[in-house]
Amino acid sequence: MSAKILLGCIADDFTGATDLANNLVRAGMRVVQTIGVPAGPLDAQADAVVVALKSRTIPAAEAVAQSLEALRWLQAQGARQIYFKYCSTFDSTPAGNIGPVTEALMDALGTDFTIATPAFPDNKRTVFKGYLFAGDVLLSECGMQNHPLTPMRDPNLVRVLQAQTRRPVGLIDHAVVAEGEAAIRARIAALRAQGVGIAIVDAVSNADLLRMAPALADLPLLTAGSGVAIGLPGNFGLAPSGQAAALPAAGGLRAIVSGSCSVATNGQVTDFIRQGGQALAIDPLRIAAGVDVAAEALAWAEARVADGPVLVYSTAEPAAVRAIQGELGVEEAGALVERTIAAIARGLVQRGVRQLVVAGGETSGACVQALGIAQMRIGGQIDPGVPWCHAVSDVAPEGLHITLKSGNFGTPDFFTKAFDLLQTQA
């Protein structure tokens, strides 16, 4: 790439990467998302690059190693600032991975201070007095306490992050944020003088995020959900532009695959079926028994996809998920479903699908890898945090449109709305 990039981003899952890229595009940055760490420079011009890793729930040491590899590549592209992106629900366990990755990046960058805030008000994720809210309830009451891999039972982010880090964790509360850039900078200086290395930052509105952004311009490293991104392009002199989101025209067949068990995705599956959509549920226990569920699903889809979008899903209520995990084990149950849905996604594209919705962070990671996607151009927003993208696949060399939806994101009618919007965007 002939030009140096301005902002280098490391995301801990694939949907989170597109969530971040979406906000940067909306604020005027041209963004390329890579699937994993590229082997060499990018061909396309970009203001920001988001390196999408699948590191949210792997062992902390592996997450650190992958993140440091991404950092080295981004530094080689000339990135002026680094952004470590995690979920707006701060998905992690007492062992990590948010804390260990943050500290490893701080060490590598030689910085003694960074901020942490998953706030994303557009998706009803807010932080107040260090407590994370999802909508009108604390994080621990929104359904995330039942997450199969990273159950979030403590909404106090200072406590959650302190359990994962050796550096003291502090707070920049809303009273400071509301006063703007000078007050935030003064609070950062005071915390640094006290030996605090990481500060949770309150934000309950986009105005808070925009006030925050200029105060963060000089920090080598930012860690956050995608919300903080809305104010960062302005630090580099960029303004919103429709050209940043331009994608090729859309065509081909349409399909949805879903491996998320979140409350939001359960509602989206229900809404799609209620509206008369063709849908097929797959059973992890049949996969474990050796049945070729992917072949069955593809045969089912092939007979229907010409008539409209089809949905193949493993989405289930928390009680059903626990029962399956109890029989197969947590990791094996998840891996079985991911591999199967990824095989279905590849088969659908081989059969002519060129508009593909993927629901679920882990599922999205498996699907883009199965499709052989290395880079994606980021387009227009469907719902907050979820854009359409355009990518070249080894089974779609002319390209396909794909959206990677975090399990918790999107309105109930997301699946049908996504295809409608693509016709007007691309």
Structure characterization notes:
- The chain has a 15-stranded mixed β-sheet, sandwiched between helices.
- Helix 2 runs parallel beside helix 3.
- The chain has two domains: 235 residues, 3-Layer(aba) Sandwich (Rossmann fold), CATH 3.40.50.10840; 180 residues, Four-carbon acid sugar kinase, nucleotide binding domain (Molybdenum Cofactor Biosythetic Enzyme, Chain A).
- 54% of the residues are buried.
- Helix content is 38%, strand content 22%.
- The chain has 426 residues and is of the alpha/beta class.
Characterize this entry briefly.
Helices cover 38% and strands 22% of the residues. By secondary structure, the protein is of the alpha/beta class. It folds into 2 domains: 7-241, Rossmann fold (3-Layer(aba) Sandwich); 246-425, 3-Layer(aba) Sandwich (Molybdenum Cofactor Biosythetic Enzyme, Chain A), CATH 3.40.980.
